[in-house]
Amino acid sequence: MPALPMAFEIGTFVVLGIILLFDLLLVVKRPHEPSMKEAGLWVAFYVGLALVFAALMFFFTGPEYGGQFIAGWITEYSLSIDNLFVFIIIMARFSVPRKYQQEVLMVGIIIALILRGIFIALGAAVIENFSWIFYIFGAFLLYTAYKQATDSGEDEEHAGDNKLIAKLRSVLPMSESYDGNKVRTVVDGKKVFTPMLIVFVTIGLTDLLFAVDSIPAIFGLTQSAFIVFTANIFALMGLRQLYFLLGGLMTRLIYLKHALSVILAFIGVKLIFHAMHVNELPFINGGQHIEWAPEIPTFVSLAVIIATIVVAVIASLIKSKADEKAAVRSGTSTETPSAVTDGLDEAADDAGAKEPRR
What we know:
By secondary structure, this protein is mostly helical. The chain has helices at residues 6-29, 36-61, 63-93, 101-129, 133-150, 154-157, 163-171, 195-219, 225-236, 239-246, 256-277, 298-330, 339-353; strands at 184-187, 190-193.
């Protein structure tokens, strides 16, 4: 990758850091549920910011690395959208008041950035010294793609139900209700933790699992740590607002998981082909590079990713519309796409109505 001007790299992280800090302060100082208009404007701003950065990458490094950024950003953004459904379930399961869900999501984004930063640094170091790691990354993505395609959703339905969470509840003094956005409160004169701590821990564990899936995927598209990290930052920025913008529409995207499984499988195959090209394992082709293995160009990867997502979204909306018409014709009542968030609203209102005993 052509060396980027140091001022460009430093400036990129300074600007992104300021934006994230402003976003965090906005959430802390004015907790609220954003309107559709507000959420839409913020999402448009972050997407526009990513496209401006992509244009700068094209200008400074050329189409190859500019294309790698776009492919990486779209892949990470798609994985993040799929992960939003898990966040919806977590919020509903713990009855987080809608007013404070922005803060929970912001904390989750910060945790995700830290974890992914660590994984990216480790991944870049391993790739630099051990080319055979591409075989492992490729096999892992193929396995993940298979699990994604065959996942029935039962694991997501039990998000937050694990031994660590149960252990925390049994060890730490915990109140039964929330006290605003506080992690600790006072009940009967004693300091105790609120359920908000459990929510933060659950979000953090979820982010850890997401990072394990997503980092190998983007390293299949680029080996530049700078591109990997910036693509992840841009994918996570605006995720909080996207959560409120999509809301009940998440249940309409029924083929998104299948699209992501196709993308992960494609990147997994690409990684294995790349591993063959840089092969150094003595028990594979005598430790020699395998020249017949095709190298998949960046523009082909970008085309496959975009086409797969577009087809999945269109097919999901067509299927959802057809199901609604079939339900109307049969006279049966079906759960609307907003049922998940409607249930979340009701549970959150109930939780918000309870005040901790002083």
